[in-house]
Amino acid sequence: MTDMVSLTLDEVQALAVRVLTANGLSEAHAQANATVMRDCQRDECHSHGLYRLIMCVKTLRAGKVVPDAVPEVFDHAPGVVRVDAKSGFSLLALEAGLPMFIEKAKASGTAALAINNCFHFSALWPEVERLAEEGLAALAMNPSHAWVAPAGGNAPLFGTNPLAFAWPRAEGHPFVFDFATSAMARGDIELYRRAGKPLPENTGVDRQGSPTTDAAAVLDGAMLPFGGHKGSALSLMIELLAGPLIGDLTSVESMAFDEGAEATPFHGELLIAFDPARFAGGDAASHLARADALLNAIVGQGARLPGERRHAARERTFASGHVEIPRKLYEDIEALMP
After folding, report:
1. Predicted local confidence at residue 283, as pLDDT
2. Which of 188, 248, 258, 275 is catalytic?
3. Taking the complete model, does pTM exceed 0.85, yes or no?
4. Which H/E stretch holds residue 112?
5. Are 2 and 23 in a shared domain?
């Protein structure tokens, strides 16, 4: 017996749906959540793949999320779509709002999608990548729980506050990045803890505010923003834009709502899309070609564009026809069945 378990992508999807529906989640929500977990596992984004089943099931069992919530879409303003997730997971709400959101962005050149009252567990790159495949440039952001201390501080105040961006390209896959404004994504710290590995320096502090490389101590203390005051400022920006601006919770308020259940964060999400064809005028193709020249020049110097690792992993997965996860994780997932 090896330490790894091999699964096809169909088996990844089926496993996720089986576990989620067995724990009370509706089929529609389970399929939406499982699809993103499958895609993250495919691209070797391990901290957002099947590992996320553990947090989703914990959230379901805590009784926080509404397992059969039906999102409601509002044509809120000429350039704004609002979706009330009705205390369900965010991904089905996203599916509900995307058609009107894309239509508005292409009609006027830009549009925003605000998702309210949602439990969010997933990576953001699948969302902006889908928009780029529609020919749109896009941003996505959301707060989380108060896990991160601001630069110069020592107590949690911000969330990991991810920011994702996508740029469409005429040929090949879109340019996409997705990163937490914390020094490391919380899911990755959890994986370090499970593996018993020390964290890189400057990832976080313990409960007393002292620097530490112990993953468990950081999870019990506070994470740190990347890049000091720069990451801290970006994190604050996301708190404001994806919190009060869209009438939803900040990371501190999400943590208070959790009441110690340690469930998936409850808050809102903001997506903004831009149509290059509208912004660039009648000669959009030549301007997009100049953008491609810039991206190609980066690669031409031997540098790597953000997102290239994921796409290389995707090609490996398609070539092999399977993914591998640690046997311990597989056993932990099977143990989630009631």
Report:
1. 85
2. 188
3. yes
4. strand 110-119
5. yes
